[in-house]
Write a structure and sequence with these properties.
about 35% helix; about 220 residues; 6-stranded mixed beta sheet; alpha/beta; single chain
């Protein structure tokens, strides 16, 4: 009758789940948004692996530089073709951790925050694939995609897909450390603040549910 036993999860996952037990703050002026990015060995979410994770928090339209996270993962899988994009060599000079340790640290950092990424589906899927390899469920956090949020501004309806470069140029955001996880997370945080300012101008009573509502799925790329 062992199949009736409740599945046992490690303590770090239980602690992560406990963050969702109380009612979540839904006021966008005080919500902790955690903007994150992953650099990976490629774009195949099933077979490629995470090379680095970078995050930075935004609360009340303020980017919290002190509330950030960065880690580099040991590369069991190496793709030399992508090095020219992210610059991460297999050895390199960064202190690197195992995938399991990186995910544990990431979960402890994000807690129940609203996650934000540009084309978030890819980054979320990469994290979920890592969780799957650890025999754990998917992320529980609400997720926002800055690509979809920009479309909600109705500033431009000429395309359905806007790259981070496209929107950085539009909002005059400097592209420092582009294609590093932490650099792209910071650029995306600046983008989020600017997009929210437009959305709140159009709708002073803007709520989290307005940001989450989307008629299209979060794209991978």
């Amino acid at each position: 009758m062992s199949w009736f036993k409740k599945k046992s999860y490690p303590d770090f996952w239980k602690q992560y789940l406990e963050c969702f037990e109380s009612n979540q703050n839904l006021d966008i002026e005080t919500i902790r948004f955690v903007i994150f990015d992953t650099e990976t060995t490629g774009l195949d979410t099933k077979h490629d692996r995470i090379l680095s994770i970078g995050t930075i928090a935004v609360i009340g339209n303020t980017i919290k530089v002190s509330d950030s996270f960065e880690c580099y993962l040991q590369q069991d899988l190496f793709n030399a073709k992508t090095v020219k994009i992210h610059g991460l060599l297999k050895a390199g000079h960064f202190n690197k951790v195992q995938e399991r340790d990186a995910i544990i640290q990431f979960l402890a950092h994000i807690k129940n925050s609203v996650l934000v990424a540009h084309h978030a589906g890819f980054d979320v899927t990469m994290i979920n694939q890592a969780l799957k390899r650890m025999n754990l469920p998917k992320l529980k956090n609400k997720v926002l995609d800055t690509g979809h949020l920009f479309i909600k501004t109705k500033l431009d309806d000429s395309k359905t897909h806007y790259s981070l470069d496209d929107l950085s140029l539009r909002f005059k955001i400097p592209q420092h450390d582009r294609h590093t996880a932490s650099g792209d997370a910071y650029i995306t945080a600046l983008l989020l603040v600017k997009i929210l300012a437009v959305l709140k101008k159009n709708n002073p009573s803007l709520q989290l549910k307005d940001l989450l509502r989307s008629h299209t799925r979060i794209g991978l790329l």
